[in-house]
C-alpha cells in the first residue's frame, strides 16, 4: 500500500470524511463528517463507548439508540472504502469486498449486541460489533480471492 493511501485510510478510520478531505473532495468529506456527527449524537454512540471502556456494558446498552446506530457501520465502512478508492493509485479488483462484508458483519454484531453473551458475558454495542469485524474482513478477503481466482480462469 502506498504511503499516501495508507495515510488517507488511517485518517478515514479515525473519523469518516477526513480521508475525502485529504483526497481534495471537500464537499464529500464535509458531508461524511456531518452524517457521522448526526448519527453519533442521535445514537449516543460516544456515551456507549465511554460506558464500554469503563466496563459498564449494561449502561452502554441502555444509553444506545439502536435505531440510529444501525446506520453507522455501513456509513462508516463506505466512507473508509471511498477514501481508499479515491486515494493515490489504481484500486485493485474486488478490493471493496472486505469493506462491504465488514459493514454487513458489524451490523449483525450490533443487532445482537444487547443480548448475545460470550461465555456468559454480555459484550455490548461497542465490543461485539468490533469482534464481528474480524469475520467480516476475513469473509470479504476469501470472497475476493475466490472471485479473482474465478475471473483469472475465465479470461
Can you walk through the features of this model?
This protein is mainly α. It has one domain (3-154). It is 75% helix and 3% strand. It has nine helices and two strands, in the order ααααααααββα. It has helices at 3-14, 18-22, 26-43, 45-53, 57-63, 66-69, 72-86, 97-112, 124-154; strands spanning 117-118, 121-122. Strands 1-2 form a two-stranded antiparallel ribbon. Helix 7 (72-86) runs antiparallel to helix 8 (97-112). The longest helix is centred in the C-terminal third of the chain and has 31 residues, at 124-154. The radius of gyration is 17 Å and the shape is globular. The chain starts with a helix and ends with a helix.
In short:
Keywords: Membrane, Transmembrane, Transmembrane helix. By secondary structure, the chain is mainly α.
Amino acid at each position: 500500500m502506498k504511503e499516501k493511501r495508507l495515510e488517507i485510510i488511517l485518517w478515514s478510520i479515525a473519523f469518516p470524511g477526513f480521508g475525502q478531505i485529504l483526497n481534495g473532495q471537500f464537499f464529500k468529506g464535509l458531508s461524511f463528517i456531518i452524517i457521522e456527527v448526526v448519527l453519533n449524537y442521535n445514537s449516543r454512540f460516544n456515551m456507549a463507548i465511554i460506558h464500554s471502556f469503563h466496563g459498564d456494558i449494561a449502561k452502554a446498552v441502555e444509553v444506545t439508540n439502536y435505531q440510529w446506530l444501525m446506520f453507522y457501520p455501513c456509513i462508516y465502512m463506505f466512507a473508509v472504502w471511498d477514501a481508499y478508492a479515491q486515494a493515490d493509485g489504481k484500486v485493485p479488483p474486488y478490493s471493496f469486498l472486505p469493506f462491504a462484508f465488514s459493514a454487513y458483519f458489524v451490523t449483525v454484531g450490533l443487532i445482537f449486541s444487547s443480548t448475545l453473551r460470550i461465555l456468559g458475558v454480555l459484550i455490548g454495542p461497542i465490543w461485539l460489533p468490533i469482534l464481528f469485524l474480524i469475520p467480516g474482513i476475513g469473509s470479504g478477503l476469501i470472497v475476493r480471492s475466490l472471485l479473482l481466482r474465478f475471473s483469472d480462469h475465465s479470461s
